[in-house]
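I would love for you to help me understand the pair of lines that follows before we discuss the fold together.
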Amino acid sequence: MEITEAKVALRDSPDKKLKAYATVTFDNSFVVRNIKIIESTNGLFIAMPSRKVRQPCPKCNFKNELRSKFCNQCAFSLPQTPAPLEREDGLNVQLEHKDIAHPITQAFREYLQKTILEAYAQERAKVAS
């Protein structure tokens, strides 16, 4: 699978961690939008598009955001979900968001990240000049 186009839309707040959004086209046939470019203490990385995980109300079955205290439909008190799990390497597993689309292999993830970060660097260079 080839990345045939990578577009980057910069965000103009320099003090924020979110630096840009990317749109990537694969084989001139498939598009993935809203890939985030985020700056961390270890440098830039990409975050795939995701959605918030929801939990159903035991009384009315309305789907509420995870960790809500009361149902937004019937005001029933919701059971509390446990805090994020801690992995062996000390990182917390975030259960609040689930990727909509994501790379399966590490090699493809590296290829995707490299391509998007190159497009990001080119876009920043255009703005700077």
